[in-house]
């Protein structure tokens, strides 16, 4: 088996690993988008309740209950912000893994191409050597006659 063929196997393995990381990156980016959407919805929900509180003119008892509810929504927002940060970190880490995998695949492919070029140059030299030997034999055969 030629070196370039062996290198192609390594390129294929590297490409499959890169493809796996791409799938993970897509999954992580989807999760981040979902987390960001949920955060936006929570903030919108809190904003709507805050606007309603200003319009309702609630009694002190209802204002306290209302405030407890708003506090729980704010806690949910803080938790979701934490989740968004975690999801973003995961996307960043997976992006780095993809970049590393991509660089490795490109490097392997470059080495394979280099092997193909070397094999072609070797083959060309061998072919030229055979042509030269044949031409020499023909020349010496003609010289004998």
From TrEMBL:
<keyword id="KW-0969">Cilium</keyword>
<dbReference type="GO" id="GO:0006935">
    <property type="term" value="P:chemotaxis"/>
</dbReference>
<dbReference type="InterPro" id="IPR053716">
    <property type="entry name" value="Flag_assembly_chemotaxis_eff"/>
</dbReference>
<keyword id="KW-0813">Transport</keyword>
<feature type="coiled-coil region">
    <location>
        <begin position="32"/>
        <end position="97"/>
    </location>
</feature>
<dbReference type="Pfam" id="PF02050">
    <property type="entry name" value="FliJ"/>
</dbReference>
<dbReference type="GO" id="GO:0003774">
    <property type="term" value="F:cytoskeletal motor activity"/>
</dbReference>
<keyword id="KW-0966">Cell projection</keyword>
<keyword id="KW-0145">Chemotaxis</keyword>
<keyword id="KW-0175">Coiled coil</keyword>
<dbReference type="GO" id="GO:0009288">
    <property type="term" value="C:bacterial-type flagellum"/>
</dbReference>
<keyword id="KW-0472">Membrane</keyword>
<keyword id="KW-0653">Protein transport</keyword>
<dbReference type="GO" id="GO:0044781">
    <property type="term" value="P:bacterial-type flagellum organization"/>
</dbReference>
<dbReference type="GO" id="GO:0071973">
    <property type="term" value="P:bacterial-type flagellum-dependent cell motility"/>
</dbReference>
<dbReference type="GO" id="GO:0005886">
    <property type="term" value="C:plasma membrane"/>
</dbReference>
<keyword id="KW-1003">Cell membrane</keyword>
<keyword id="KW-1005">Bacterial flagellum biogenesis</keyword>
<dbReference type="InterPro" id="IPR012823">
    <property type="entry name" value="Flagell_FliJ"/>
</dbReference>
<dbReference type="InterPro" id="IPR018006">
    <property type="entry name" value="Flag_FliJ_proteobac"/>
</dbReference>
<comment type="similarity">
    <text>Belongs to the FliJ family.</text>
</comment>
<dbReference type="InterPro" id="IPR052570">
    <property type="entry name" value="FliJ"/>
</dbReference>
<keyword id="KW-0282">Flagellum</keyword>
<dbReference type="GO" id="GO:0015031">
    <property type="term" value="P:protein transport"/>
</dbReference>
<keyword id="KW-1006">Bacterial flagellum protein export</keyword>
<protein>
    <recommendedName>
        <fullName>Flagellar FliJ protein</fullName>
    </recommendedName>
</protein>
């Amino acid at each position: 088996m030629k070196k370039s063929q062996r290198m192609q196997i390594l390129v294929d393995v590297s490409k499959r690993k890169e493809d796996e990381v791409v799938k993970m990156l897509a999954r992580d980016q989807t999760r981040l988008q979902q987390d960001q959407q949920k955060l936006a919805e929570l903030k919108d929900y809190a904003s709507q309740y805050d606007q309603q509180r200003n319009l309702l003119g609630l009694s002190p008892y209802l204002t306290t209950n209302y405030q407890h509810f708003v506090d729980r929504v704010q806690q949910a927002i803080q938790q979701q912000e934490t989740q968004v940060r975690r999801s973003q970190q995961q996307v960043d880490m997976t992006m780095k893994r993809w970049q590393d995998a991509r660089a490795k695949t490109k490097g392997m492919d470059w080495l394979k191409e280099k092997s193909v070029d070397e094999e072609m140059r070797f083959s060309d030299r061998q072919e030229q050597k055979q042509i030269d030997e044949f031409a020499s034999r023909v020349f010496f055969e003609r010289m004998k006659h």
